[in-house]
Write a structure and sequence with these properties.
Number of domains: 2
Number of helices: 11
Helix content: 25-40%
CATH class of the largest domain: Mainly Beta
Distance between the termini: 15 Å
Strand order of the largest sheet: 1-8-3-6-9
Strand content: 15-25%
CATH superfamily of the largest domain: Regulatory protein AraC
Structural class: alpha+beta
Length: 325
């Protein structure tokens, strides 16, 4: 089967339904229906992986995945997680007449780190739990039909919500994605529910209530009655990211919400989320979101359709993930 080759037509980069789409978004979702001999019947070949994460659910037929020096097949109810930079080498299993899989491409929020550790990632640990992988592809198998339906429904809801045309469609879809990742985390072998330390909860609330201020680690630690070093260690252990990264996540989340739902000047939004220097705010926002605050607001005002009018005028039935190259 031919491998996909990326398009370099810059004019098509902003249309996820056309070749060459850069996937420079927080979230994109869809369904890839592969049938033997059909237009999508080829192996994806991305040796360098992608910048974001992909979670994939087989809903019909079987797929084949090559992970390092190992290969395995996925069947209905199998979930796969491809971290950034992990090679993509997969397609329809040769003996299967089809492979239908739902997927979500996303850029995670900082506090999702604990939910993104799956069996099979790393050095092959988790193979006894059915991971069957070796270098980085996570794998979970959903044996319970009720759980499988619940997870598939979440994939469908994420896709439908993101395409819903509301100003907050992306945020609502990300909300659903959080739920999906938590449910997957709960279904992982050896999962044990663990409540968040009350002092970490208090630190998060204190930071969230003071996003406009540059609180020092010492101030936050004093507020929760811990030493700075102990708080830093405990916070990273439980949240998966540093306090600085978590605070930046919250600032960007709030800034996006204000840009979408209010007419507040960008400079005021920057100050509201802790960046008095508008240029610095724009630089941080672009680094995290992929576009400047003004471009983000303008794109949301120009169209409620996340794919844009061009997609409707020039549809392409191929999966955008299959075209990204």
């Amino acid at each position: 089967m031919p491998s996909l080759r990326p398009s370099h037509d810059a004019a098509q980069q902003l249309n996820p339904l056309l070749p060459g789409y850069s996937f420079n978004l927080y979230l994109v979702a869809g369904l890839t229906p592969i049938v033997q001999g059909g237009a999508l019947d080829f192996f994806i070949d991305r040796p360098g992986g992608m910048k974001g994460w992909i979670i994939n659910l087989t809903v019909q037929g079987r797929g084949k995945v090559v992970d390092g020096d190992r290969a395995f097949e996925c069947e209905p109810g199998d979930l796969l997680l491809f971290p950034p930079g992990v090679a993509h080498d997969y397609g329809r299993a040769p003996h299967s007449p089809e492979w239908f899989h739902r997927w979500v491409y996303f850029r995670p929020r900082g506090f999702w780190a604990n939910w993104l550790t799956w069996p099979g990632q790393g050095d092959g640990a988790g193979a006894e739990a059915g991971a069957g992988t070796g270098t980085g592809v996570g794998r979970l198998r959903l044996a319970d039909p009720a759980v499988r339906k619940e997870i598939e429904d979440l994939f469908v809801q994420i896709d439908a919500t993101h395409r819903g045309g509301r100003r907050t469609s992306e945020e609502l879809a990300i909300n659903l994605l959080e739920r999906l990742l938590i449910r997957c985390h709960e279904e992982a072998p050896g999962y044990e529910s663990r409540s968040l330390d009350a002092r970490v909860q208090s630190a998060c609330q204190f930071i969230a209530n003071n996003l406009a201020h540059e609180l020092s680690l010492e101030e936050i630690a004093r507020h929760v009655c811990l030493s700075p070093s102990r708080l830093a260690h405990l916070f990273r252990e439980q949240m998966g990211v540093s306090i600085v990264r978590w605070r930046e996540d919250q600032r960007i989340i709030l800034a996006k919400h204000m840009l979408l739902s209010t007419g507040t000047p960008i400079s005021s939004i920057g100050a509201r989320v802790g960046y008095d220097d508008q240029l610095y705010f724009s630089r941080v926002f672009r680094k995290r979101v992929g576009v400047s605050p003004s471009e983000f607001r303008r794109s949301s005002e120009e169209s409620h359709d996340p794919w844009g009018e061009a997609a409707a005028e020039a549809p392409d039935t191929r999966s955008p993930l299959a075209q990204a190259g």
